[in-house]
Write a structure and sequence with these properties.
Helix content is 30%, strand content 29%. The chain has 111 residues and is of the alpha+beta class. A four-stranded antiparallel sheet has the order 2-3-1-4.
């Protein structure tokens, strides 16, 4: 079994709530049909350090391929078109930590 993959979306700015709501209505079923599981989807209950009080979505996937395929799925593309540039968001896709992995040294390399 491959490592789990997580998509974390931080919505830094939503300028058109109607467009966002139209997106969310179509995106949620498309995301679920693509194989993701919603783990969180709301504003933070608490922030720390440089945290922003911005909407966050956390998805779990069984593979990176599934997470990547979402962006070409016709149902998700139709949902994404509803956003019409009405949000500014930061989306990151990360893999899970392997059980027993040494956590003493941080990997601070960047792409």
């Amino acid at each position: 079994m491959s490592d789990k993959v997580y998509t974390i979306a931080f919505y830094d700015e939503i300028t058109d709530c109607d467009a966002f709501d139209a997106y969310a209505e179509l995106a949620a079923p498309a995301v679920i049909n693509a194989g993701a599981r919603y783990l969180a989807r709301d504003f933070p209950v608490m922030t720390r350090e440089a945290g922003k009080n911005a909407r966050v979505t956390l998805l779990e996937w069984d593979s990176l391929e599934d997470a990547e395929a979402l962006y070409s799925d016709p149902a998700y593309v139709a949902a994404f078109e509803k956003l019409e540039g009405s949000v500014r968001r930061d989306i990151r896709i990360v893999t899970s930590v392997k059980p027993g992995a040494f956590m003493g040294k941080a990997d601070v390399s960047s792409n």
